[in-house]
């Protein structure tokens, strides 16, 4: 193998290894999500959405699920507090409560 070819292959290897962290940090397409939504790096999970709803309204969580509405990922959390049932919608990207 010629010296030039070894140098070029060496530099290509170095550049590839240097690029791996940025490739791994790229958003990943969500499996099973409606319309192939891309997950943002600051997206929350179901457990975090449950905690957000409980802190805001109190009560006991009786149901929690991921839903899609108008192409957006949301979490629907059902709480029971003093006999009252409340459904809370939490935005999966920002963690904001969408219904007061």
Automatic annotation (TrEMBL):
Residues 1-25 form the signal peptide. Keywords: Signal. Pfam families: PepSY. The keyword Thylakoid does not apply. Residues 44-98 form the PepSY domain. InterPro entries: PepSY. This is PepSY domain-containing protein. It comes from Marinobacterium zhoushanense.
């Amino acid at each position: 193998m010629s010296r030039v070819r070894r140098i070029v292959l060496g530099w290509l290897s170095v550049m590839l290894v240097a690029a791996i962290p940025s490739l791994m940090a790229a958003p990943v397409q969500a499996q099973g999500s409606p319309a192939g939504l891309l997950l943002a790096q600051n997206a929350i999970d179901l457990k975090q959405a449950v905690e957000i709803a409980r802190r805001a309204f109190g009560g006991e969580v009786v149901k929690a699920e991921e839903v899609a509405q108008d192409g957006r990922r949301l979490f629907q959390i059902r709480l029971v507090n003093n006999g009252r049932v409340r459904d809370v919608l939490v935005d999966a990207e920002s963690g904001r409560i969408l219904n007061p």
